[in-house]
Amino acid sequence: MYDPAPLLPRYGERSLAEVFPAVLGALGVPGPAPALGLPPVRAAAVLLIDGLGAELLTAHAPDAPTLARLATEPLTVGFPSSTSISVTSLGTGLPPGTHGLVGITFRACEDRLLDSLKWTSHAEAEATDLRDALPPEQIQPHATALERAAADRIRVTNVGPRTFRGSGLTRAALRGGHYQGVHALGDLASEILTALSGPGRRLVYGYHADLDALGHLHGPGSTPWRFQLRQVDRLVATIVEQLPPDSLLLVTGDHGMVQVTRRYDADQRTELRLGVDLLGGDPRARHVYVRPGAVEDVRAAWQETLGEDAWIVTRDEAVAENWFGPVAAHVPDRIGDLVVAMRGAAGVIRSIAEPVMSGLPGQHGSLTAEEQLVPLLLATTVR
């Protein structure tokens, strides 16, 4: 039995966008009172585990005793519940409708889809690097939490894969401070602890990707995924065991994940292509950009094809129902004329335009509890 209504993000109350404002408040950075309360600290680290869903953690708590012990009330991530959107909400303290990254792929200019993970063109014979044509600082113009911390004379360090240094998403969501590239779990833990240590106020952001990768490849809850969860648990335990005095570690995720077993192929099914100009998003959350005057016909065709496997709304309905949070003036055209959020174990794939993504068993992006809820884990040495 499907949930009758989508699980809408708790923007302004308990979403990813509330995390960094709370951390900055704990470090003494001036600003509005945060929705999440944290104790005052000298140093703080925020560690994002890609693909760590709250319901998955609860189901596999024996594999992650440290994470389970640190868990508090879960957060919602925002819509779509996918990495580039969530990372930008976390990094800016803003909901997707305000920061403007509204999909894994979305219409960032009149006739072209932007892949917001790679910052390249999408569904073209050869992907084009768009960092010059669509500068990340213009697509997402708001100051990041790392920039605000650095402006308040906090020592800021961003610890993540070396290949992410200077990437479009890093520039859009996490610009500011020093970027420290790492290779594996060992130097991720070491660099986070090093950056937290020493005199003065310090802020560290850390990122780990492999749990998400194994969930996509093998399915969430699979044996490889569970074994990786054990490694993540040990990573967090290592940091907690050596956390410097008067500091805080906050661990969260950017989305959960579901196993997709029913696939509707938009590249092969005529009824899903008629009247459609561009098709963005990902298999669990699609932006459907339609030709003038075709919205109702396209909606009817998609609803007839997908049935109870999807919530289908117009752009205006999605905005009115707060799927994206408050929407800035420059953002509506980036949202599809129709927005499709999948239910159950279904996904809308594109076997030609997205051959790799289409074959992955693990997917995320929609408004189900499995995808929306992520843990909020806290450890502190404040006395």
UniProtKB/TrEMBL annotation:
Source taxon at top rank: Bacteria
InterPro entries according to UniProt: Alkaline_phosphatase_core_sf (IPR017850), Phosphodiest/P_Trfase (IPR002591)
GO-annotated molecular function: hydrolase activity
Pfam families: Phosphodiest
UniProt-listed PANTHER family: BIS(5'-ADENOSYL)-TRIPHOSPHATASE, ECTONUCLEOTIDE PYROPHOSPHATASE/PHOSPHODIESTERASE
Name assigned to this protein: Type I phosphodiesterase / nucleotide pyrophosphatase
The species this protein was found in: Pseudonocardia oroxyli
